[in-house]
Amino acid sequence: MLAFLFLVLVGILLLYFWPEIHVSVQNTGSAPMQSVVLHVTGKSYSIGDIFAGGSASATVEPTGESGLEIEFIDAYGTIKRLNAGGYFESGYRGTIQVSIKDGTIVKNEQDIKLW
User: Fold this and answer.
1) pLDDT in tens, 70-93
2) Where exactly are the structural domains of the chain?
3) Could you give the CA distance from residue 76 to residue 96 in angstroms, rounded to a whole number?
4) pLDDT per residue over 59-74, tens digit each?
5) How far apart are CA 111 and CA 6, in angstroms?
6) Which residues lie closer than 8 Å to 10 by C-beta, 6 or more apart?
7) What angle do CA 114, 100, 65 make, to 5 degrees?
8) Cα 110 to Cα 37: distance, rounded to the nearest angstrom
């Protein structure tokens, strides 16, 4: 019984302290953002289309020193790639919340720590 409780406690601690960066992108503009992709060092994460007023999110795990870039197709069919900056790497955890209005980042809140 004690071993079981120990394993449950370890599992809870791992879930709480597991290194990951949770990214949320909100479209505060008047047109949809199509084929949205989050880019970090070594990996890309497709989060689909984000309609006006909508949002989408993903957990990203870079393979090395990284920042965040957000790529999408705007209402005119132009591919945009915005640099959301930041600094994180494998082993870091936290959140990034980005709001994009008509192709421009209008809010970028980051709370990232080395756990």
Assistant:
1) 999 999 999 999 999 989 988 898
2) 20-114
3) 27
4) 999 988 999 999 999 9
5) 30
6) none
7) 25
8) 18
CATH code matching the domain that covers 20-114, chosen among 3.20.20.70, 3.10.129.10, 3.50.50.60, 2.60.40.2890: 2.60.40.2890
Residue 95 CB burial class (10 angstroms; 0-12, 13-18, ≥19) = middle
Helix (H) and strand (E) counts for the chain?
Answer: 1, 8
Amino acid identity for residue 64 in this structure: G
Q: What tokens does 76 get?
A: 């005119």
What's the order of all strands across the beta sheet hosting 33-40?
43-50, 33-40, 66-73, 79-88
